[in-house]
C-alpha cells in the first residue's frame, strides 16, 4: 500500500469563494482529498458542483480562500504568479481540457505544440523531438500527423494530441477535465484505455466528469462533489456497491447496466427531493 510519501496531490480543507459582501458565492467548502502515484481519482459532480473550480485552484488559476494545496510535497497554496510560472515550467502538473481544439494553438503544427513546453524549459531540440515521437506513439497516433494543424485532425485525434502534450514533460500529476464527453463511442474507448495505461505506468490522474459510467471503469477511487462540498469518497467498488449519499445514489440511478435499467423518472425525482430536504 502506498504511503504518505507517495501522495502527489493533497488538498486539505479547501475553501474557494467568489465575490464580496452580498455577492459572495461559495464555490468550494472544506474539500479534502489525496491522489497517490499510479492512482486515478474520479471526481464526479453535475455542472456547478465545483469540479472545475477545484481543478483551477490546484493549477493556481483560482486563489484559495482557505485551506491548503500540496503538489509533489510542495505547498503551492500561496504561490505568487512568478512562482507559479516557474512551477508550471517544471511540468509537475498538467491539465487536459475538455475541448482540445480551443486549447491547442491553431497556428502551430502538432509537432510545434508538443515541442514548445520542452524547449521553454531548455531541453535540447534533438532530445525534445525524440520525446515528442515517444509520447505520440504512446497515445496511438502516427507521426505523419505531426506536421498538421489542429483543425486538420478529427476530434479523437485532437484529444489524443492534448494528452500527448501533457505527457511530454513527464508530469507527476495530470488533471483531465471531461476528456471523453465530446467524443463518439469508439474514440471514448480509446481515450479511456490510454488513461488506464497511464495509471499502470505510475502517473497520478484526476479524471473529472459528470458521467459516472465513464469514470467507473478507470478510477481506483471516486470523490463526489455536490454544491461545492465533498459528500462521498471511497474506492470505486465501495461507492458503486454501497453509495452513502442521496446524490451519489441519484448519479448511479442514471447509469444503465447490463443487469438493470436506469432509475425511473419518479425514482430520480424522489432522490432529488431527498437531497433538497423535501418530503418524499
TrEMBL record:
Protein name from the UniProt record: ABC transporter domain-containing protein
Annotated family: Belongs to the ABC transporter superfamily.
InterPro entries: AAA+_ATPase, ABC_transp_ATP-bind, ABC_transporter-like_ATP-bd, ABC_transporter-like_CS, Oligopep_ABC_C, P-loop_NTPase
Residue ranges of domain ABC transporter in the record: 11-252
One matching Pfam family: ABC_tran
Keywords on record: ATP-binding, Nucleotide-binding, Transport
Native organism: Kineosporia mesophila
Record carries keyword Magnesium: no
Amino acid at each position: 500500500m502506498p504511503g504518505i510519501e507517495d501522495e502527489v496531490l493533497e488538498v486539505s480543507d479547501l475553501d474557494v469563494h467568489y465575490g464580496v459582501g452580498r455577492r459572495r458565492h461559495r464555490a468550494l467548502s472544506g474539500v479534502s482529498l489525496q491522489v497517490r502515484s499510479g492512482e486515478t481519482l474520479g471526481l464526479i459532480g453535475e455542472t456547478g458542483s465545483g469540479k472545475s473550480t477545484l481543478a483551477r485552484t490546484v493549477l493556481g488559476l483560482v486563489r484559495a480562500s482557505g485551506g491548503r494545496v500540496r503538489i509533489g510535497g510542495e505547498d503551492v497554496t500561496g504561490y505568487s504568479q512568478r512562482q507559479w510560472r516557474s512551477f508550471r515550467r517544471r511540468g509537475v502538473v498538467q491539465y487536459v481540457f475538455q475541448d482540445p481544439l480551443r486549447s491547442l494553438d491553431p497556428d502551430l503544427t502538432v509537432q510545434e505544440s508538443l515541442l514548445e513546453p520542452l524547449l521553454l524549459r531548455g531541453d535540447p531540440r534533438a532530445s525534445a523531438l525524440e520525446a515528442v515521437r515517444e509520447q505520440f506513439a504512446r497515445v496511438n497516433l502516427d507521426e505523419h500527423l505531426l506536421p498538421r494543424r489542429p483543425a486538420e485532425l478529427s476530434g479523437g485525434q485532437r484529444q489524443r494530441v492534448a494528452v500527448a502534450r501533457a505527457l511530454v514533460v513527464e508530469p507527476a500529476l495530470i488533471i483531465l477535465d471531461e476528456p471523453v464527453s465530446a467524443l463518439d463511442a469508439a474514440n471514448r474507448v480509446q481515450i479511456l484505455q490510454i488513461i488506464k495505461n497511464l495509471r499502470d505506468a505510475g502517473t497520478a490522474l484526476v479524471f473529472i466528469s459528470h458521467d459516472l459510467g465513464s469514470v467507473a471503469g478507470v478510477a481506483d477511487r471516486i470523490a463526489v462533489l455536490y454544491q461545492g462540498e465533498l459528500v462521498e469518497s471511497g474506492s470505486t467498488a465501495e461507492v458503486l456497491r454501497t453509495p452513502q449519499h442521496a446524490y451519489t445514489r441519484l448519479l448511479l440511478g442514471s447509469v444503465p447496466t447490463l443487469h438493470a435499467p436506469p432509475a425511473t423518472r419518479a425514482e430520480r425525482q424522489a432522490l432529488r427531493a431527498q437531497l433538497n430536504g423535501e418530503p418524499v
